[in-house]
DNA sequence: ACCTGAACACCGTTCAAGT
DNA sequence: ACCTGAACACCGTTCAAGT
């Protein structure tokens, strides 16, 4: 029951709704990727004329933004408890879990501008942790922006497979890549190393 | 038919060349972005029938890959001189300079799989630096993969404007974003902080 | 060997018209 | 107010035919 959006006058199924359009689009994206989403296919899934969508969504870009906001609103980071390093680790883990739930959408969103908005719980949660860590107020935004960009790169590379592909390369080209049996463990190790790197960067940047 | 000269710079002459197709495509991408590139527009620029392109390039995906390889081959990292921290900083700076030369192409490539290939000078250069830094041979690939993903995220966010937008947010919402006069200095500061973070992560990961 | 025209199966979106 | 059909201006790609 996360979203407290509007819920005003929710008709029954028959009527076309902005929310209904977004959730149907999300289902298509989860199944086949953002590239396979089209206004016409979405209309077909909803059993409606393609042009009917334009009475609820101005265009395809707005549609994608709406779907993104639908799941961005689900992110409720827990930023309390423990020292700030633990808070940041938990924060990163929560966000990564969200990315794993909808990898197609997240990979697309991370690669495009305007994914993070200043009002998002993501940004307010992150800047809060940085402030409690002791980052000077004048530098919280810059530090948060850099950390966001770095971590987005990790999630993006993890989501599109680049990370897994490169991480198993053997130093000597004679041997092939390692077996995929330890892929999950390796992925978690990569994640831990990535977050430790970000934490080390913050620590090195704190005023002494 | 006179020309037997095969200097592959098929400009507007007559003969269509794979290289000529790639460079023309790169020009279009630099001007208007990857999204504005189409086989038909590219053919129009080359003064040729759209279908003629398919005799030299199998499809659009291969076209984009060819353009990417065209500029990936230009990256010749200088990995010698100084301690490994200096080598890594120089390496990152060189790669960032390449990204600034063709931002539209790089932003698109960073977001898609297969941008980094194991034979690329990028990967061999990076793994070489990590090895000299003392990263155990069994972990060079994983560490290099994570660092690549993190740094890609930085370049991506820098290229699509997300980084600059978030970095200037003020802690108190009352004040607007800072003036853009110091944008370049801020960008360089962000870059320095990003690379320092990566270095700190490596240092923390080195065997004691 | 290289190039081309016509055609197919798609797109997003506008607009005037229906109810 | 909401929905629709027809139409416009595009796509990538196949195929048979030209030279």
TrEMBL record, chains A, B:
GO terms for biological process, alphabetical: negative regulation of DNA-templated transcription; response to antibiotic
Keywords: DNA-binding, Repressor, Transcription, Transcription regulation
Gene3D superfamilies reported in the protein's UniProt record: Tetracycline Repressor, domain 2
DNA-binding region as annotated in the record: 38-57
Superkingdom of this protein's organism: Bacteria
Record-annotated membrane-spanning stretches: none
InterPro entries: Homeodomain-like_sf (IPR009057), HTH-type_TetR-like_transc_reg (IPR050109), HTH_TetR (IPR001647), Repressor_TetR_C (IPR004111), Tet_transcr_reg_TetR (IPR003012), Tet_transcr_reg_TetR-rel_C_sf (IPR036271)
Lipid biosynthesis recorded as keyword: no
One Pfam family, short name: TetR_C_1
Molecular function in Gene Ontology: DNA-binding transcription factor activity; transcription cis-regulatory region binding
Transcription recorded as keyword: yes
Ranges for domain HTH tetR-type: 15-75
Protein name: TetR family transcriptional regulator
Species this protein is from: Micromonospora globispora
Taxon lineage: Bacteria, Bacillati, Actinomycetota, Actinomycetes, Micromonosporales
């Amino acid at each position: 029951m996360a979203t407290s959006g509007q819920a005003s006058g929710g008709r029954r199924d028959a009527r076309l709704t902005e929310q209904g359009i977004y959730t149907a689009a999300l289902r298509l994206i989860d199944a086949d990727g953002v590239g396979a989403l089209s206004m016409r296919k979405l209309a077909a899934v909803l059993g409606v004329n393609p042009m009917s969508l334009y009475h609820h969504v101005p265009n395809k870009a707005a549609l994608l933004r709406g779907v993104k906001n639908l799941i961005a609103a689900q992110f409720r980071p827990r930023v309390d408890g423990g020292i700030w390093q633990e808070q940041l680790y938990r924060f990163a883990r929560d966000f990564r879990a969200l990315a794993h739930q909808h990898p197609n959408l997240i990979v697309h969103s991370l690669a495009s501008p305007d994914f993070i908005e200043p009002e998002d719980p993501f940004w307010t949660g992150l800047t809060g942790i940085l402030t409690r860590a002791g980052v000077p107020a004048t530098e919280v935004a810059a530090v948060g922006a850099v950390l966001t960009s770095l971590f987005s790169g990790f999630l993006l590379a993890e989501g599109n497979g680049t990370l897994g592909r490169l991480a198993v390369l053997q130093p000597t080209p004679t041997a092939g890549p390692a077996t995929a049996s330890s892929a999950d463990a390796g992925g978690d190790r990569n994640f831990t190393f990535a977050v430790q790197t970000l934490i080390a960067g913050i620590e090195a940047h704190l005023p002494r």
